[in-house]
Amino acid sequence: MKKVLLLAGVASFVAFASCKKETQKEEVVSTENVATEDVTTDAPEEGATADLANSSIPAAPQLQDETLQSWVNDLHAAAEKAKNASVAGNVDELNQATAEITSLVETLKTQENKAEYNQAQEYYKTVQEELNK
User: Fold this and answer.
1) Of 13, 30, 91, 112, which residue is the least packed, with the fewest Cβ within 10 Å?
2) What backbone torsions phi and psi does residue 104 show, to the nearest 5 degrees?
3) CB-based contact 92:23 (threshold 8 Å)
């Protein structure tokens, strides 16, 4: 269930990040005359990219368990990478970061019996909300 929610969140994030509106002048050449036509393509709404660029991934919490601490640090790094790739419009890097996050979520499931598991899980939810903005 968590994987489905993550993939849905990431898919919506990718869709949002790839939506761009730009107005371009495109020359349309016909056999009789040359005309200039306005073409609208997708680009971020004004301020949308700035909002995403100004948002930041919350710092990783400090945990006693070394394995979970490493996990939250890795999640933070992957989330920052995903955010930066989205702002830059780099789909390949965004896909790679998304794959890293998905892999990390799978590894977190193996840590369910640890005392600080809930803190790591809450941090993941916080990061997910930040990326879905």
Assistant:
1) 30
2) -65, -40
3) no
CA angle 92-42-58, nearest 5°? 55
d(CA 88, CA 86): 5
Lookup result for tokens 């710092």: 59
- C-alpha 39: how far from its chain's center? 28
- Domain total for the chain? 1
CB 114 within 8 Å of CB 66:
no
What range defines the domain where residue 63 resides? 2-131
H or E stretch including 77? Answer: helix 66-88
Please determine, for residue 59, whether its predicted confidence score (pLDDT) is greater than 50.
Answer: yes
Q: Where are the beta strands (DSSP E) in the chain?
A: 21-29, 34-42
How long, in residues, is the chain? 133
- What local confidence, expressed as pLDDT, does residue 119 receive? 92
* Cβ–Cβ under 8 Å, residues 13 and 33: no
